[in-house]
Amino acid sequence: MIGEQFLREDHLIFQQTTRRFVDKELLPHREEWEALGTVPRDVWLKAGENGLLCCDVPEEYGGPGGDYMHSVVLAQEMARAGGGAPAFAGHSDTAAPYILLYGSEAQKKEWLPKAVSGEAIFAIAMTEPHAGSDLQAIRTTAVRDGDDYVIKGQKVYISNAQQAHVVIVACKTDPSAGARGISLLLVETDRPGFVRGKMLKKIGRKAQDTLELFFDDVRVPVSNLIGAEEGQGFFQLMGMLVQERLTSAVRSTSAMRVVLDDTLRYVKEREAFGRPIAAFQNTQFEMADLWSTYLAHRAFVEWCIGKHLKGELSAVEAAAAKLRASECEGVLIDRCLQFFGGMGYMWETPIARAYADARVNRISAGSNHILKMLIGRDLLK
Ligand SMILES: Cc1cc2nc3c(=O)[nH]c(=O)nc-3n(C[C@H](O)[C@H](O)[C@H](O)COP(=O)(O)OP(=O)(O)OC[C@H]3O[C@@H](n4cnc5c(N)ncnc54)[C@H](O)[C@@H]3O)c2cc1C
Predict the structure, then answer these.
(1) Separation CA 111–CA 99 (nearest Å)
(2) Which residue spans of the chain are classified as CATH 2.40.110.10?
(3) How far apart are the CA of 164 and the centre of ligand 1, in A?
(4) Distance (Å) from CA 365 to ligand 1 centroid
(5) Number of alpha carbons in the 13 Å side-chain half-sphere of residue 379
């Protein structure tokens, strides 16, 4: 268990609830939802009823008043469900926190209770066809018109967008001001001019919906600005990256453990040349290597969690955790898959899905090449 030393009684109870939910509500439906490309709406409501959404929202806004360790527990249990679907983390840990951290009192009162119950699903829309890593290059604009902003532009690869009720949209409110010209706006998805594009076909995470979005002169009131003034969006987004990258590292490390357990089981069962493949020295050496690699990563991630719980984890440390965990996840799953032989290449096996699902972790939450640049720049300054 990642972060065992930080778990309290309430985290352990939460773990049991989450485990039951994953076993009963998610695992049996994986294939059906992969074909659908999303999950049914009621899964979110059931997750809300079980207290799995937005655990860190305080009681005054309808939340359970939990902390980051609830997210860590959820990430680990969700890793058993595989496939990152439903994208509870995108809703609870990435999108809704913008309201909790930077939203007005009215936004918090209106939206946080609904985010906790699953009544409102949240998405975050930064990436555009021309701009992903280079956020300052986004072209979606929000132009002030009386008491409204008028939003025009396009976003791509947006998780949870098929079902989202609220999208936090990064827009240029002053295209001439660089980073200081970006603002975040809360956009309700029933507003005229908000158009969902097609569901994108992905190589993994097939039950997690990922869409293009179009904003065709969408009007939102000025009160939908997140933060007290325009131009804060870039800094709000950067402020969230430490937790987002750490959570990504927790997810990758959790996936490694699930795959290791599955592989250890398989090599003991599968026979070749009259004995279990676990009996070959190559298998023992490989598994020893992979297991010790996992333990080393887990220790690093736990150290990062400890620092984050005290509010001391730096952006560079979080980037290093995400970089190493996602790279290691890719290599570890690949080497584990080898033990499954042809079976490992078949979509029906969890290892094949884990292999495909993991790939995005080296791209999202900061492409690993960008993270190397950030870390390198800091080391050599
Ligand atoms: C499944 C999935 C879900 C996603 N969900 C969301 C979401 O919910 N919301 C959202 O806003 N976005 C989402 N994204 C988008 C994701 O955040 C971006 O794909 C990511 O930030 C990279 O941006 P890009 O794809 O435009 O790649 P680019 O920015 O074009 O980068 C491509 C590659 O170019 C190289 N590169 C670029 N800049 C540099 C540099 N400065 N130094 C060195 N190399 C560089 C790197 O190799 C990099 O990997 C999702 C993506 C996927 C695949």
Answers:
(1) 8
(2) 123-230
(3) 21
(4) 8
(5) 9
State the amino acid at position 356 in one-letter form.
A
Q: Where are the alpha helices (DSSP H) in the chain?
A: 9-21, 30-36, 41-49, 68-81, 88-89, 97-102, 105-117, 233-269, 281-309, 315-339, 350-358, 368-379
- All CATH 1.20.140.10 domain ranges in the chain, comma separated: 235-379
Per-residue pLDDT band for 220 (boundaries 50, 70, 90) equals: very high
Distance 42 CA to ligand 1 centre (A): 31
Q: Which of 193, 175, 192 is nearest to 183 (CA)?
A: 175
Q: What is the pLDDT of residue 84?
A: 76
116-126 pLDDT tens trace: 999 999 999 99
pLDDT value at 158 more than 90 = yes
| pLDDT number for residue 296 | 96
**Which residues lie with the beta carbon below 6 Å from any ligand 1 atom?**
90, 123-127, 132-134, 157-159, 202, 205, 210, 360, 363-364, 367, 369-370, 373
Residue 3 φ/ψ, nearest 5 degrees: 80, 25
Ligand 1 pocket test target in 98, 133, 154 with most atoms within 8 Å of CB: 133
Mean pLDDT of 14-21: 97
In the chain, CATH 1.10.540.10 sits at 4-120
Q: What is the CATH number of domain 235-379?
A: 1.20.140.10
Q: For residue 83, is pLDDT > 90?
A: no
> What fold characterizes domain 4-120?
Butyryl-Coa Dehydrogenase, subunit A; domain 1 (1.10.540)
Query: Is residue 60 among the annotated active site residues?
Result: no
State yes or no: pLDDT of 6 exceeds 80: yes
pLDDT digits (tens, 9 = 90+) for 240-291: 999 999 999 999 999 999 999 999 999 999 999 999 999 999 999 999 999 9
Q: Is residue 9 over pLDDT 80?
A: yes
- Contact indicator for 255, 333 with CB cutoff of 8 Å: yes
Q: What number does the ligand 1 atom closest to the CA of 131 have?
A: 26
Which one of the listed residues 34, 128, 244, 329 is annotated catalytic?
244
Q: Into which CATH architecture does domain 123-230 fall? A: Beta Barrel (2.40)
Q: How confident is the model over 64-83, as a mean pLDDT?
A: 93
